[in-house]
Sequence to fold (380 residues):
Amino acid sequence: MSTDDVVYLDHNATTPVLPEVLDAMLPFLTHHFANPSSGHRAGRVAAAAVAKARAQVAALIGARPDEIVFTSGGTESNNLAIRGAAAAAGPNRRRIVTSAVEHPATVQPLDQLRAEGWKITTVPVTSTGHLDEEALTTALGPAVALATVMLAQNETGALMPVSAMTAAARAVGAITHTDAAQAVGKVPVDVEALGVDMLSIAGHKCYAPKGVGALYVRRGTALVPLLRGAGQERGLRPGTENVASIVGLGAACATLGADLQGEADRIGGLRDLLWDILSAAVPGLVRLTPVERAVPNTLLLSFPHATGWDILDASPTVAAATGSACHSGEHQPSSAVLAMGIDRRAALGTVRLSLGRGTTTADIQQAAAALIAAVGSVAG
Fold:
């Protein structure tokens, strides 16, 4: 996907709203504006649209419609799952197990719980970026209330063994949650196959607008709401529904589900083409995205002899991300990359290229040429 001669390879940060999603939303931003809680005909039209979207989201992940709770996005979904489960836990379960490479939307709620006296056990990842399953099994025990591990890592693209986590957690009576923001719409996601009790979705990661998301909550899962109000979303997320955006999320899920495997194969082929071109032209280039058990759209690379920031500054026609952060003028490497055992210099050289439904072969060739030229200019 190109915009103003810039190739957009930052779909893990956010995705464009699909045309069919916008078309589905527009009537609910204009004519069908009523509150879905209203008892009149206009309100019933809005309520029916929310119900349809709920069924569309549920269908994409193999859930029942009544197990879908609409939220403002992935961050709220994670907070509701983690803090809500903690509030519902019994007094003898005061421990939570998580991974070393979670998104801040998981890390920060866990830090808050730690400050409130909870014990948070962090399971390491392997050199490929996958969860260490042996360490996970060791970490689980009868005092654990919740195990929360993301389904797809946002930087490396590694797919985590969530089904193994849920099996081990159930054996000790713990409930489970996965942040699936980077997996939904990229790979098949089925809540029954995964066995999870809760699963978070972020609309803007799957071609719906920003500001909408969902939390799957398995029937019977104890959860205390974070907000109190008029009782919408079964009381788990009160507040007048964001109807247009909810409709957009539903439409996006329907579109993604219609050609999921075909698009995954196409995008994976383009990702591999990008790697082939770059690795042939850049000596010492390292691929940090695992070859196996990874989402098909993500390519995390470590460029030699340069920081990721240098590479992207020298290739302004490529919109991509670097795993490092800049604090007070000094670049800091990604904690997720360091957790894989990558040394600091290599971690500072990371660039994340994430493809999407609009990415073409021409985009890949244009972006590769720009990145190769950037390497030459930085080295020179």
Q: What stands out?
A: The mean pLDDT is 96. Residues 2-16+259-379 form a domain with the Aspartate Aminotransferase, domain 1 fold (CATH 3.90.1150.10). DSSP finds 13 helices and 15 strands in the chain. The two ends are 30 Å apart (CA to CA).
